[in-house]
Structure formats: C-alpha cells, structure tokens
Specification:
alpha+beta; Aminopeptidase; globular; about 25% strand; about 200 residues; seven-stranded mixed beta sheet; disordered C terminus
Length: about 200
C-alpha cells in the first residue's frame, strides 16, 4: 500500500527565522502540551530570550501543505531548540535543586538543555519527534543532553528512554505547573535511532 502522507523534512533553523516565526512555533507547543492560549502567550518573551543564550540551536520539521497549484507550500509541523545550561538560568537552578549533589556535578556542567521539542498533534506518531531530537543534538560539543518531560507513560517519554536518556529525577514539580515532571539525561552523542513504531 502506498504511503500518501506529505513528505516531511527536518532542517536546522536559523535563529533569525525562528525569532520571526516564534508565534507559529509556540502554537505547536501549546497544542502538543495541552496548554491554553494564556500560557502560550506568556511563553513568547522567554522563548525569544532563549535564542540569545550560548550554544543556542534550533531545528524544525516542515510538511508539504498539499495546496494545489504552483510550488508545494510547506508548513512548520514540529520544532525543537536548546542551549548550554548555566547557573542563574531558571531551568538550570530548578534542576540543580531537584538533583542530589553528586548527580548534579556529574550531569549539569556544560550540558545542552533540550528546552523545547514538540510535534503538532496531527503529525505525531510518524517518527518526527525522534528525527527532531537526533537532528537537534547531532554534532554538539557538549558531553550530555538534559531535558524535562511530563512524568507519565507518554510516547515522548518512551522515545527518550529508547534513545538513551536515563532518569535523573522523577515526580518533580516545577513552579506554575501542577503536573509532575521527570528530569532525564543522556550522554552525547546519542546512539542511532532504533526502528520503533511507537515514536512521536
């Protein structure tokens, strides 16, 4: 049977492009995370600030929109970005408090934070989350990648574990979010993605 789904490509995003299209990206963030418009709107300023941090890198997934006539139009259907963690950053300091001293000393120095990694719900379960993750951390000079994700049996959680992330803390509550989160880490480079139909 022929797969008729639109082709999707993963590319590294120039920082100026992402800044210009941040509202578009954050709409995907809100839909993927189940956040309301107020939360999404409040995220904009922080996301723009993130683009100025050392080691910033972003990737995007683009799918053909299927519009008829002329050149095929593309739309952003997933994105990810991150940067080098450092003391004084909100996420770094939250995670530092969540980890025991030995774990923090082992994982935090010069780590790359996968700050955002989201796929539009209409395009999930096609491997885009995994492709975005591997593109984002490919060729980084950092010793490790860190991230936080809702602490639940989700496709994203299973993806991270399948691709080499390990639990550093579970059941952690970030201020302003009632859900428990897991803090995960992986040594870089990540191993090549395995064939797994249960990816995001």
């Amino acid at each position: 049977m022929t797969d008729t789904r639109p082709a999707t490509r993963i590319v590294e995003l120039p920082t100026p492009w992402l800044r210009e299209h941040m509202n578009e990206a954050l709409t995907i963030y809100g839909l993927a995370m189940g956040y309301g418009s107020a939360v999404v709107a409040g995220r904009y300023g922080y996301a723009i600030q993130h683009t100025e941090r050392p080691g910033f890198k972003a990737v995007g997934a683009f799918a053909e929109s299927g519009a008829g006539g002329g050149e095929p139009a593309e739309q952003l259907v997933g994105f990810g970005y991150g940067y080098v963690v450092a003391p004084g950053q909100w996420w770094h300091d939250q995670v530092r408090a969540a980890l025991d001293r030995r774990t923090a000393k082992k994982w935090l120095p010069d780590a790359f934070e996968v700050c955002e990694l989201h796929v539009h719900p209409d395009h999930q379960s096609r491997g885009l989350g995994r492709r975005l993750l591997h593109a984002l951390v490919a060729d980084l000079p950092n010793p490790a990648a860190l991230l936080s994700t809702p602490d639940a049996d989700t496709k994203a959680f299973r993806l991270y574990h399948a691709d080499g992330f390990v639990d550093l803390a579970r059941g952690y509550h970030f201020p302003g979010d009632a859900r428990p989160f897991a803090i995960l880490g992986a040594r870089l480079p990540l191993h090549p993605p395995r064939q797994d139909p249960a990816n995001s």
